[in-house]
């Protein structure tokens, strides 16, 4: 598959459900991919990328940004508090705010450095022990807490459990967002981004369908 094919599918799905294509941001997830593949997609004109590790992103994106300064970078992986500052300086958006302590940290650092990336709160919709994200029943309090510190909360993010029907989780996330007056929905990956768009996704995170399989070897 390729960037143009995935962009076309995003456009078609938007058309099918009567949404403008500009409603949906395609985040090309470049984690673990070799630099030449990322370079190719940059040269094709795509400017929104996702990474799941601060360290990895810090290693490769400053270089790419010298050639492609208008690149927008999204953190989509879990964030340790001690890497919050580095993440806030490197990323334009962070999709993995999931606890009050991290919200406090963001607020303190934002005061110091004078800006804060756009934030999404990750919700553990499947209540999986191994997965990051706040439990759905603790979400409203976290939204309120983040808002009270003037953090720019744009929406919610989820990663459905692998063996469950993703659309149930997408629908739940949409409901939770609506209840909290949030419009951003970061949901949908290579295998299910079309379903996510139909259920209201504003940000889809697509890796392997654009770049090919990741080689963790
Ligand atoms: C890796 C990753 C993706 C992309 O997964 P693909 O199946 O390759 O599209 C999306 N979201 C998160 C949080 C990821 O870590």
What does the model show?
- An eight-stranded parallel beta sheet has the order 7-6-5-4-3-2-1-8.
- The chain has one domain (about 5-210): Alanine racemase (TIM Barrel).
- The chain has nine helices and eight strands.
- The chain is α/β, with parallel strands linked by helices and about 220 residues long.
- Helix 7 (about 165-180) links the parallel strand 6 and strand 7.
- The protein starts with a helix and ends in a 6-residue tail after the last helix.
- Pyridoxal 5'-phosphate (PLP)-binding protein, which is involved in PLP homeostasis.
- Belongs to the pyridoxal phosphate-binding protein YggS/PROSC family.
- Keywords: Pyridoxal phosphate.
- Its cofactor is pyridoxal 5'-phosphate.
* Discrete helix count: 9
Looking across the biggest beta sheet, what order are the strands in?
7-6-5-4-3-2-1-8
SSE arrangement, N to C:
HEHEHEHEHEHEHEHEH
In percent terms, what proportion of residues is strand? 15-25%
Main pleated sheet:
8 strands, parallel
Radius of gyration: 17 Å
Helix content: 40-55%
By CATH, the architecture is named Alpha-Beta Barrel
Uncertain ranges: none
Label the structural class: alpha/beta
CATH superfamily: Alanine racemase
What compounds sit in this structure? pyridoxal-5'-phosphate
Kindly provide the name of the CATH class: Alpha Beta
Distance between the termini: 22 Å
